[in-house]
């Protein structure tokens, strides 16, 4: 290729630049450095980095400085820790439940060594991976048997695909929930190869609606937790024990998708009631499905508990292999389930529960600790006020129950007309911090709900790095109102 006439002869070769980049090669590897040098040289030749060439002079130190920034950017971890101050404790977009360090240590152990994942150490023969958690699950739910899959969507899928292929499953019209777009009960039914038979109306479903719908092709009656909405007013639904009787009288299984579900009665800590797996099985459900990373506070997983014969059929389904969980998650789940054996100390040990039960007074102390530092850092830019706010549990648990909390509201000063943009710039500046801080935008203010801030210093010690001049893309996540922040 003929040399470009506008390019100075002094542009060094890749080899020459590699020779002065040994610290970068040491850090990022020769191949990555070579690739980025080539890319940057191409930009120089295309005239996109005019500051690097003046006449015949090439600014090599400036070149390596840009290269270093590009390398840092290319190799920075994509998934990073953030401070979730959105007020949604289990935020699907922010990774739902946060695990305690003991559970994380168990995962690290399992990751960095061979384990007896599917090996019976006593017998020296093949074992079952689910056995590491099944005994805990049956003990905590009272079920005869239990098994684990990738997530609760997978749990519902495999239950339906196993028990009702090419058959009908009866569900109330009031329960045809969509969770975060991708998971809708009617769609999951068709993917599982079943036919959904809707009964009743949106607000009222009666026993006879179910009874009339049972026919020769019926395979199950299913109840679905209305995780992210509530139907209020003139309503009627059929109690679980009635549905179980109805199903059993016709030799059908009664299935309950609990969604979040929980293994302990949250009322014990003054939280609103959420059905427990034990309670639902006690009402006669033959199988329950629930998530590992919602109220349970563990890793992503779908838990299936209930009658031994049904669980055995699920485990024999070839789909099980496609939906099974790996050793890391089993290690995490085992560690979390073990904590439930001691409910008295659960709240102190499980971050999800610790946050949900945190007292207003304690959250206020955090607010008091961060407010002066925020005022100082935002002096001349935003007004900082402590506000009463309401946290939500999130991830489809108790959608209408909000927990009284305390937050700080940051309102940009001046320029009322453009306050929408200003608050987005403010939100963007907080997202650019070393530990990005995610709040929510509400009425032109950026609100940080402090329920989930354990140590005020996580916020205050990085305020010196806050760049308020930073240009800002519109904050997508913050732009959601607190009500729409619930995602699956
Ligand atoms: C959240 C939810 C699911 C999906 O659970 P994932 O763990 O997100 O896969 C299914 N059903 C109900 C009722 C839910 O609330």
Give a description of the structure.
- The chain is an alpha/beta fold and 488 residues long.
- The protein folds into three domains: 14-75, no CATH class; 83-93 and 355-486, Aspartate Aminotransferase, domain 1, CATH 3.90.1150; 101-347, Aspartate Aminotransferase, domain 2 (3-Layer(aba) Sandwich), CATH 3.40.640.10.
- Helix content is 39%, strand content 19%.
- A seven-stranded mixed sheet has the order 6-14-13-12-11-7-10, sandwiched between helices. A four-stranded antiparallel sheet has the order 15-16-19-18. It has a two-stranded antiparallel ribbon with strand order 1-2.
- The site of pyridoxal-5'-phosphate has 17 residues, from α7 and β12.
Quick description:
The protein has 20 helices and 19 strands.
Rg over alpha carbons? 28 Å
Whole-number count of domains = 3
Q: What ligands does this structure carry?
A: pyridoxal-5'-phosphate
Major sheet details: 7 strands, mixed
Under the CATH scheme, the architecture of the largest domain is: 3-Layer(aba) Sandwich
Low-confidence runs (pLDDT<50, min 5 residues)? 470-488
Mean pLDDT: 91
């Amino acid at each position: 290729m003929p040399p470009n006439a506008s390019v100075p002869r002094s542009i060094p070769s890749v080899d020459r630049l590699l020779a002065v980049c040994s610290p970068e090669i040491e850090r990022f590897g020769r191949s990555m450095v070579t690739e980025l040098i080539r890319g940057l040289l191409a930009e120089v030749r295309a005239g996109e980095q005019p500051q690097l060439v003046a006449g015949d002079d090439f600014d090599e130190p400036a070149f390596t400085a840009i290269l270093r920034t590009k390398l840092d950017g290319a190799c920075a971890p994509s998934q990073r820790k953030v401070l979730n101050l959105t007020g949604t404790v289990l935020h699907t977009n922010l990774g739902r439940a946060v695990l305690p360090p003991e559970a994380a240590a168990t995962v690290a152990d399992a990751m960095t060594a061979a384990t007896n994942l599917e090996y019976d150490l006593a017998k020296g023969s093949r074992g079952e991976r689910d056995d590491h958690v099944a005994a805990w699950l049956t003990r905590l739910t009272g079920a005869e048997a239990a098994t684990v899959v990738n997530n609760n969507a997978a749990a519902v899928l495999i239950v339906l695909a196993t028990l009702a292929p090419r058959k009908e499953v009866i569900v109330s019209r009031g329960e045809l929930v969509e969770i975060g777009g991708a998971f809708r009960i009617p769609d999951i039914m068709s993917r599982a190869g079943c036919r959904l038979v809707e009964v009743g109306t949106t607000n009222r479903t009666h026993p006879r609606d179910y009874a009339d719908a049972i026919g020769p092709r019926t395979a199950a009656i299913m109840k679905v937790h209305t995780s992210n909405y509530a139907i209020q007013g003139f309503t009627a639904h059929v109690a679980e024990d009635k549905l179980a009787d109805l199903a059993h009288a016709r030799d059908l299984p009664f299935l309950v998708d609990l969604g979040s579900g929980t293994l302990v009665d949250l009322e014990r800590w003054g939280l609103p009631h959420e059905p427990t797996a034990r309670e639902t099985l006690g009402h006669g459900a033959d199988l329950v499905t629930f998530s590992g990373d919602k109220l349970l506070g563990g890793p992503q997983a779908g838990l299936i508990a209930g009658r031994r014969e049904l669980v055995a059929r699920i485990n024999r389904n070839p789909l099980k292999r496609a939906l099974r969980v790996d050793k890391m998650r089993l290690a995490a789940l085992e560690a979390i389930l073990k904590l439930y054996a001691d409910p008295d100390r659960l709240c102190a040990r499980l971050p999800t529960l610790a946050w949900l039960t945190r007292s207003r007074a304690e959250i206020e102390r955090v607010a008091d600790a961060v407010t002066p530092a925020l005022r100082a850092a935002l002096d001349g830019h935003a007004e900082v006020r402590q506000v009463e706010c309401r946290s939500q549990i999130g991830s489809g648990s108790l959608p209408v129950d909000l927990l009284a909390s305390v937050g700080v509201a940051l309102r940009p000063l001046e320029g009322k007309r453009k306050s929408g943009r200003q608050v987005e710039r403010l939100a963007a500046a907080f997202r650019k911090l070393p530990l990005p801080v995610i709040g929510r935008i509400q009425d032109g203010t950026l609100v940080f709900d402090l329920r989930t801030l354990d140590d005020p210093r996580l916020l205050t010690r990085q305020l010196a790095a806050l760049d308020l001049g930073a240009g800002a893309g519109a904050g997508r996540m913050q732009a959601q109102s607190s009500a729409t922040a619930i995602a699956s």
